[in-house]
Amino acid sequence: SKKIIIAIDGMSSCGKSTIAKQLAQQLNYIYVDSGAMYRAITLYFLRNNIDIANTTQVKDALQEIELDFRFNEQSEQVEIFLNDENVEYLIREMIVAEKVSEVAALADVRAYAVSQQQKMGGKKGVIMDGRDIGTVVFPHAELKLFMVADNAIRVERRFKELYQKNPNITIEEVAHNIEMRDYIDANREISPLRKAKDAIEIDNTNLTPDEQLQKVLNLANSVL
Ligand code: C5P
């Protein structure tokens, strides 16, 4: 069967990466977590005190950043490297989550990330999740999904995930971060979060991971 591009968008913590990883495994496709790129750029900016209001500083910083995804045999996951350092776990921390949407709203940052994402899609057989994949990065993707889930469920899922690594985290903190990122992501000037006209909406509020996977596999098989 032919190789296609699958674009998965939606608000924060809607289960995009869960379904993307499962699909990639089932179809033997490459999974690309575009949000990890914005998070890694944000980590670099934080470490180097980049003033995001200063375009020259931002442009210069981007020139110093090299991102790549590498497969880890042990975890059997793709992990992101920032200048050869594995930052897959560091970028999930709250300090990054608190700044990432402001960084991702910058024109230079988006141009940098999108051009790399488009190159990764060149060979097809790619599943990418994010906010603007079906609208901007791959407007011609053969399959576009737009994930939604109730707010309370999203907060609960993300809280459980973060709590495992940091038992000091509070549910209020998680709820606030999700709300803030969704607001900035949906209201920014460049590539705001939107459902593409031809995207299929999937509400997984009441779906088990298995039910969701079956539903999405059926959709994928209908275009493969
Ligand atoms: O997907 P994740 O929640 O890790 O993404 C982190 C942030 O990166 C989002 O809140 C958003 O600000 C930004 N992002 C983006 N465009 C994408 C993916 C992520 O602006 N395609």
UniProtKB/TrEMBL annotation:
The keyword Nucleotide-binding is annotated on this UniProt entry: yes
Binding site for ATP: 10-18
Known catalytic reactions: CMP + ATP = CDP + ADP; dCMP + ATP = dCDP + ADP
SUPFAM superfamilies per record: P-loop containing nucleoside triphosphate hydrolases
UniProt entry keywords in alphabetical sequence: ATP-binding, Cytoplasm, Kinase, Nucleotide-binding, Transferase
The keyword Transferase belongs to this UniProt entry's keyword annotation: yes
EC number annotated for this UniProt entry: 2.7.4.25
Pfam families for the chain: Cytidylate_kin
A molecular function (GO) term: kinase activity
Domain of life: Bacteria
InterPro entries reported for this sequence: Cytidylate_kin, Cytidylate_kinase_dom, P-loop_NTPase
Enzyme class (EC, first level): transferase
Residue intervals of the Cytidylate kinase domain: 6-221
Compartment(s): Cytoplasm
Family classification: Belongs to the cytidylate kinase family. Type 1 subfamily.
Record's protein name: Cytidylate kinase
Origin species: Niabella ginsengisoli
Taxonomy of the source species: Bacteria, Pseudomonadati, Bacteroidota, Chitinophagia, Chitinophagales
